[in-house]
Structures are given as structure tokens and as C-alpha cells.
Amino acid sequence: MLINLINPNTSGSMTDCIHQAAKSTSSPDTMFRACHPSEGVASIEGYLDELVAATGVIEQVLEGEKAGCQAHILACFGDPGLDAAREVANAPVIGIAEAAMHTASLLGHKFSIVTTLARTLPISEHLVHKYGMTAHCGGISAVDIAVLELHNPESDAYQRILTACQAAMNNEQADVIVLGCAGMADLTQRLQTALGIPVIDGVSTAVGMVEMLIRCGLATGKRHAYAPPLPKTYGGWQALC
Prior knowledge:
Order of helices and strands: EHEHEHEHEHEHEHEH
Structural class: alpha/beta
Radius of gyration: 17 Å
Helix content: 40-55%
CATH topology of the largest domain: Rossmann fold
């Protein structure tokens, strides 16, 4: 099966990190079209970034449809452009925040989200509500590390994330930790070993979900909310015209 693995920012190194995380848990017969937009923002850390990134997501979803991809994964914890992507795609589309939260709700009474910058906390709070996870989410915390600094040894990212996870376990009674950034994916197993509880990376869980959907022959329902866009001219978007 062929999965369109979309990094919504323009960082090639982040795309490589996400691709490695996806391959580490995928089935042997799964292949990925790992990609990022041709234009956009290098990291997504606020509402404007998400708005700009969403157009690049649609670009890559359309390219993936042309390439014969059987599913699409949006590998940014804000799930930018998810609903619009479901309108334009025939194949199923999964966002990593959506995948991570639903998986976490199956593994414990409460989960906590640990993310990057404090300015993104309202975005995660909105998604918790949107995905019906208010009763399951014990809290959301930020380690105040920029996305592109996660792999900088001087940022001490692992230790700061570990400390935040331990605080969530002690103060929020978290049974499960959800990592709130695709760039944290490579820390998942190390954190899980140190904490002794499930640690959820949305990239790997989204891969498992779309593999299941493909095998079951399931795709997005297109009758109402996710019906294809109405015929009209989209300036600069010839693929949609």
C-alpha cells in the first residue's frame, strides 16, 4: 500500500524524521510518499502558520491523489487543513493529533499532552474539544522549545520533555502521554522506557490507523460535510478548477 505522508511545514530534515518514525512501525508492504509543501513555513507554531501551511497541505494531498496514494497522513499536531483535505481527497485522511488522542483514550483513563511552545496550547485545547476528548484529557503542557530546536542538543529537549511528562503523571494522573509535535517522534520509545507508561507518537499511530482503513476498504464519507468542493474558480489553484 502507498501512503501519502505529508509534513505540513517546509523543513526537509523534519520530513526525514517523520518518514523514519513512520517506517519504524509500518507493515512490510507499506510504502510512503514522504513530502512537504513547495512553499510555506519552516515550522508551524501559531494560527497564521497553520493557515499558511493548510494551502500546502492541499497541494500535497492533490499530488498524492494523482500518484495513487491510498491514504493521507497530516504530520503536524495542529492537523492543519484536515477538513479541507477530506473534501478534496478520495482516499482517507488522518491527522496525527486526531490519531494520537483516539489511541490514548483506548489505553488509559486520562492522557496528558506535552507539546512545544506555550503559544500553541490553545490550538491543542481546541482540538481536544473538537475530537470529543475533553473527558479523557487531563491536561496540556508546553516545554517552550521551538519545533526546529527539538533536535538541537543544546536545547536539552529530551530532559525537558521527560520532566514535563513526569509532572503530568504526578499532577494530572496521566495514564498515557501524548507527544504534541511530530518532531518528538524519535523520542517516543526512550520516553516510554523511562516513564513506564504508554507514550503516544501521532505519526506511528496514524500509520496504523490508515493501514487498517485501507485493508478494510474504508474511506471518507462524501455525502454531506466532506462532499467535494463546489465547482468554481480558485485563483492560482488550477488543480481545483
